[in-house]
Design a protein that fits this description.
Blueprint lengths: L3 E10 L3 H12 L6 E14 L2 E14 L3
Antiparallel strand pairs: 1-3, 2-3
């Protein structure tokens, strides 16, 4: 039987949503093992002086628990 757990992660990038997601997964793999998937739950941007300054993704990461 496989049992998985989910955790929510927020990651930010000055380049793109894609980069923010990649940075979030890269950081998560330093702490979590057996990551199976990530669902991008929400995407937002920060705006200053009429320009986008940061891209943020909130994602739900699923990982399988070890026996």
């Amino acid at each position: 039987m496989t049992v998985a757990r989910v955790t929510e992660i927020s990651a930010t990038s000055t380049q793109s949503f894609d980069d923010a997601a990649k940075q979030g997964i890269a950081r998560a793999t330093k702490t979590l093992r057996n990551i199976e998937s990530a669902w991008i739950k929400d995407q937002t941007v920060s705006v200053e002086n009429d320009a986008i300054t940061h891209y943020r993704v909130n994602m739900v990461v699923t990982f399988v628990l070890e026996d």
